[in-house]
């Protein structure tokens, strides 16, 4: 069944109001109308089954039929920090990180990032990436849309995170692959994984991360592209927390 | 350093001969010439460091300087069977499955595959996908390029594989997520994971798979796109076999 995130303020006790592009999607693309059922989420922990009750031009009202229990979130709050990479690859990272369960995505300009964002550019880009994340969260059955932000101060922006990791090709070259496994066995309540750009993180960046308690980890013996690393990490976390006994 | 797969017959005891597009890539794109070093692989278990010795128009000869030990392959032979999906997504699956360590990729027309291939079309498509796999294998440091084939008889084509799994959304809906973990603890020497198309595998397909000893598994509580499932599976396998103690 179709799923739509709405503003928390638009989900009441008995009714949900849907506005904007989703109205068009429901009525034109899905060709649904009064009496049809949809799933609505408030991105605040609430998922409900609702029946369309009123359809106007730019808004739609649905009566809440049932509260759903959504068990689709990873048991650990996982954030990904992705160095800026070329546009379409960044779209892809955001879509997949959402699909694979990330709770937050930080974008940052790494020393070796070829792509540069100014403040104005970043605002537009983030708005676009938020739409991609919303759609991916709806399609993958997530209870939350990951927060997406551009930061120039990654270390300071993530001090709340209990365990901070960064992907370190040097560990891989030394065949030292057990860092992630050992990290997860410390049972962190929240976790951040920093992914470098195509050229990898610079020595200076790694030094700063280490000075702030970040741990370098390997993702195995194969050289992963920048846009693949976060997906590998989230899959490994899902396997560890959700598929293992 | 740049890596190039060559025909086994082109790698001798002391010399490697490179032909075709790779010559252009080495001389024009990388602007390398006599005296420069490259890594060559014969897709047959051999990786060598070689120094360019002669450059002609359409061929290049490099002297073998050193035999390399390549440890980039998964300890278990993993094959992915991907139902036909739209072209660019299939390119992506092949690139990522190569990057993430698949030994073979079977493409098959699933009951719910929207895309259809005839024999002529499939030959062209496979040739194109083999190029994508070669490039991805070179970039990710693989020792082997995965075999890519289109089959109308998936069950018969994979009888040699010790453990055959298929992704089953029904298991996920029942919150029965430990199938993959349990399967890996049976220590199979070779493994196949079947991924359905956008609409998933049909009930009939699942029945046939079960009749032939395939096991249905869940990839966790989130709904993954068809093009994401193989990547999740390979990442989980890598974490299990390469990153865990």
Automatic annotation (TrEMBL), chains A, B:
InterPro entries: Alpha/beta_knot_MTases (IPR029028), PUA-like_sf (IPR015947), RsmE (IPR006700), RsmE_MTase_dom (IPR046886), RsmE_PUA-like (IPR046887), tRNA_m1G_MTases_N (IPR029026). Residues 18-64 form the Ribosomal RNA small subunit methyltransferase E PUA-like domain. Residues 73-237 form the Ribosomal RNA small subunit methyltransferase E methyltransferase domain. It catalyses: uridine(1498) in 16S rRNA + S-adenosyl-L-methionine = N(3)-methyluridine(1498) in 16S rRNA + S-adenosyl-L-homocysteine + H(+). It is an enzyme of class 2 (transferase). The keyword Metal-binding does not apply. GO terms for biological process: methylation. It comes from the Bacteria. It is found in: Cytoplasm. Its EC number is 2.1.1.193. Keywords: Cytoplasm, Methyltransferase, rRNA processing, S-adenosyl-L-methionine, Transferase. SUPFAM superfamilies: alpha/beta knot, PUA domain-like. One of its GO terms (molecular function) is methyltransferase activity. Belongs to the RNA methyltransferase RsmE family. Specifically methylates the N3 position of the uracil ring of uridine 1498 (m3U1498) in 16S rRNA. Acts on the fully assembled 30S ribosomal subunit. This is Ribosomal RNA small subunit methyltransferase E.
